[in-house]
Amino acid sequence: MTYQLDLLDIQGNVLRAYGRFRYPAARYVFFNIRDGAKGRAFVAALTRRVTTAVQWGEGPDKLPPPEWTLNVAFNYQGLKELDLPRESLIGFSPEFVAGMKDRKDILGDDGPSAPEHWDPIWQHNRETREHDVHIFVSINGLMPLPKDAKPAAVQAAVNDAKARVEAGYRWLLEQVAAQQGGVALLGGHRGDNGELLDYQDVQAVLENGVPTSKEHFGYTDGIGDPVFEGVPYDAERINGRGKQLANGQWAPLAAGEFLLGHTDEALEYPPAPSPLLLARNGTYMIYRKLHENVGTFERYLDEHGQRYPGGKELLAAKFVGRWRDNGAPIVKAWDDASKARFDADYKAADGHGKDQLLSNFTYDEDMSGGRCPFSAHIRRINPRASLEFTRDEQDPAKVCGAFSVSEGAFDTPGALANRRRVLRRGLPYGTVKDRSRDDGNHGIIIMMLNADINRQFEFVQQQWINYGNDFKAGNDKEILLGNHSQSEHFPSKAVLQVDPASDDAPYILPRLPRFVETRGGEYFFVPSLTALRMIAAGTVDPT
Amino acid sequence: MSNIAGKAYAMNVITPIRWYTAWLNKLIFWVALQRPATLKGLITLSLIHYARWVIIGRDQFPHVHPSQPRETLKYSYMLFFSNFNGSWDQYVDSFTFAIPSGLDMFWKWNVRYSKSVSLTPFHKYIRYNQLDTLHYYNAYPLATSNDVKSARIVKAKLLDFDSATRDASDDDFAKQYRTLLRDLQHDLGDMYPTPIVSMSAYQVERRQRWHEGQLDGSKH
Amino acid sequence: MGNLSGNAYALTVLSPIKPGIIADEQIAYADKVRSILQGWNGLPNSPMTAVPQTYLCRYFVLDNVYTESQPGGSAPDTLNDWLPVVPDWLRRAAMPAHDQLKSRYLVFSANVYVGPSGDIAPYLRGMWQAIRKEVESIWQYCYGFDEVKDADGFAAYIQRCALPASLFFVGSNDEPLPEQLKALYIKQQFARFAVDNQGLPTATLRQNFQAFMKQIAPHELATPTWEPGKYRLP
């Protein structure tokens, strides 16, 4: 029997990356609760408008997509201020209780990423009661279908989406006003000119007025989002996004990897607070504001693009594992000929075909990293089955820079990856006005969802992004997101492997600068609709 | 306490075995020794410097002096010592994800072993029976097992290259140097201090630091 | 023999600690041992850095055998699930019994290079010679240790306290420690060389390589190399 989720009980942002459903703009707003009872009344008002994961469309059990979505989450302090019983509070995970700032040493948020450089809202969070972030609200605006495909029409549609976000925001402010000081909006998000804004705006990067799924470095984002059991609108997206099986097939991941109250890949319920109704269908969300040093990126890419034998665009593709023009995975398009083949196939494919071309691949033919380097973004974030690898090291003379699949070594080929997956949501913020400068207001807001922050998000961040031992790369970090060393004495580098059968030498990226810096963030809990109603009513009772 | 020394974690686990089934464990270990394929998962994970299993019969605790009372135990015991890279969670998790049946094979006959799947009971089983190390010494705190293995390869390749290219032409030297780098393209990872493994370990490390220098590496 | 894997040796030592008390410190011998070992963590580096051929080693005090257990899960338990006729007393009779050690044990577990001879005694004699004072400071509280007067005596005593391993897994390698350390040094240096010399003309590369080989002196184990137990690169 197919796995069923209660779509009306799960918040819509958990199962949907809204950007993919024609919501190209959003606003994130944060609140401080001044009075518990009024805070609960505020939550009650929001809950009635919260967007669920219900199927959109016409027909039974379906609803039309809303003009603007609304989703809600709380951090630990927020749940405390809403007067959740202590017995429930102690059931949340230690890292959630501690918060992102406290975990900076685990996350590698040091140097320019350290909390003292974060946006004021995040700097002040968890310092004083009055400035603590408690509630997260997100509003995404639906883009109407443009009249035609001309840029002017598309631009108008994008503007409509933004206007809808504004409408949602006005509604939200009315709910705040209704509580007469019981809930305060927290400002302190840095804007374009260093001014402080009351909210964090995000929107898809436009190319000639048309929204793209690219971020400011030019890479397509969010292709490899995991697919798990019971999500009806992902049924055709399993290949390449679920878990890789020994027979070459793909299966959806267990729901409990992303939703509390469901069994996970270890056949058990993930640790969760009690009562069950508080936890079930809820999940943890990691909110992170990442500034992109566009100037540094462009300079580094230019400098090494001139020296790198494959040229600048191939080098850019090596950083991430995907080509910047159409997102082609480099394991499928590793040189001019294969890229041309991919492009032709891609052009000819329908929507589903395109999606499969981008997402459905393995590293089985690239165990040595000659195509996709071991430190490339997508290989580090989701190594698929590539960590079941080995080489014969008994005789050094036989070692040749090649690895092969260590067939049957693990219970399942993706054993080391399947429990480290995270759902990724979010959009870019700001615009790049000068590609030679770092100091503009541009980056991405990334929101990651998982059932266990420590096992999933923090592990990937610490072990795979900021460290490389699982990839036999010592301390070498992931190229794009790694917290590269600021020390002259111990600079960071990355090795771009080559085909072991070729006559080439690997290219080493020396003295990697920080391309991305953390500007704030926090750990949140995204409750189910049932839990929201109980929190609002003050009836959560683990007795 | 000091379960951590640089990039290595010292795990000690003691678990009871019924005295009359201890031979089964010994047999399994003997088979594992004869058939290296049984250890393929461990080798592929490549997280362990050295590990051992010691079975102590219930009347085999060392007795070294007439005045020492002899042990009278109901069970025999299995002691497991491991030197692995990463944090406790990372290690235990990687093992249960990757080689659950291998773990079960070694621990199956231990009293009340929970099996390696599901994860939480297995975590608890190990935690309940884990003995903390007081003092842990590691000759190469900056190196993982991967590094130790790859260092041997780097050294050998480098010496071969050196002797093979002494009299080579410049072109040949360049070609062979490319080959050297290509052969070693997975062996050039830097060995810098490890990211901290857990916040609690970090707290302890700050209080009882017995390695010279600063934790943040700012003192060079 | 299970203790040996190639040239590497798994030494597992359980030395029974006498039940005495140091009256003026109000501390039992076993707790004193524990406290001394904890004190080693506050030194600039471990005394074990001075003991040749020690890859990794650890010390702890075994107070008693296992402390806790999982509920349920034994055969009568499963039978009880299947067959309601299996009485509950039978299920409970299979629950783990309490076991009590009569002595507390100092546990010393080391992974060391012993070479082709497979004999651990030379290592132990080396340990005595290197850190006799530290060895005596902890082992003095153990049964039978007062008879140890010299390196041979120590080696013999430790071997009486040693237990055989059923399986010894060597995941790194079994080279002598100075070889391992030298190789690690070379690996780190060569990675840096590869970065610094990327893209240089062959003639320059060649020149630099010769200088590099001279500088790292690959056949000199003593220096330059990594010192044992170093947490920071120079």
Description:
- Chain A has 543 residues and is of the alpha+beta class.
- Chain A is 26% helix and 17% strand.
- The longest helix of chain B is centred in the last third of the chain and has 21 residues, at 145-165.
- The relative contact order of chain B is 0.17.
- Chain B has 220 residues and is an alpha+beta fold.
- Chain B is built from eight helices and five strands; from the N terminus they run E-E-H-H-E-E-H-H-H-E-H-H-H.
- Chain B has two domains: 4-128, no CATH class; 145-183.
- In chain B, strands 1-2-4-3 form a four-stranded antiparallel β-sheet.
- In chain B, strand 1 and strand 2 form a beta hairpin.
- Chain C has seven helices and seven strands.
- In chain C, the strands form two sheets. Chain C has a four-stranded antiparallel β-sheet, covered by helices on one side.
- With 234 residues, chain C is an alpha+beta fold.
- Chain C folds into two domains: 4-64 and 100-160, Alpha-Beta Plaits; 175-234, no CATH class.
- Chains B and C meet through strand 2, helix 1, strand 3, strand 4 and helix 5 of B and strand 2, helix 1, strand 5, strand 6 and strand 7 of C.
Write the layout of secondary structure elements.
The complex is a heterotrimer of chains A (543), B (220) and C (234).
Chain A: H1 12-15, E1 25-33, H2 36-47, E2 55-56, E3 62-63, E4 68-74, H3 76-81, H4 86-89, H5 94-98, H6 104-107, H7 120-124, E5 135-141, H8 151-178, E6 183-185, E7 189-190, E8 196-197, E9 200-203, E10 206-207, E11 210-211, E12 243-244, E13 250-251, H9 276-279, E14 283-292, H10 294-307, H11 312-320, H12 336-348, H13 351-359, H14 377-381, E15 389-390, E16 404-405, E17 423-430, E18 442-450, H15 454-465, E19 494-496, E20 507-509, E21 516-526, H16 529-537
Parallel strand pairs in A: 2-3
Antiparallel strand pairs in A: 1-5, 1-6, 1-9, 4-5, 7-8, 10-11, 12-13, 14-18, 14-21, 15-16, 17-18, 19-20
Helix pairs in contact in A: 2-16, 10-11
Chain B: E1 4-5, E2 8-18, H1 22-34, H2 40-45, E3 48-56, E4 75-85, H3 88-98, H4 100-107, H5 119-128, E5 135-138, H6 145-165, H7 170-183, H8 199-207
Antiparallel strand pairs in B: 1-2, 2-4, 3-4
Chain C: E1 4-5, E2 8-17, E3 21-22, E4 27-28, H1 29-40, E5 54-62, H2 75-82, H3 88-93, E6 104-113, H4 121-139, H5 151-160, E7 167-170, H6 177-196, H7 202-216
Antiparallel strand pairs in C: 1-2, 2-6, 3-4, 5-6
Protein name (chain A): DyP dimeric alpha+beta barrel domain-containing protein
GO molecular function (chain A): heme binding; metal ion binding; peroxidase activity
Domain DyP dimeric alpha+beta barrel (chain A): 9-125
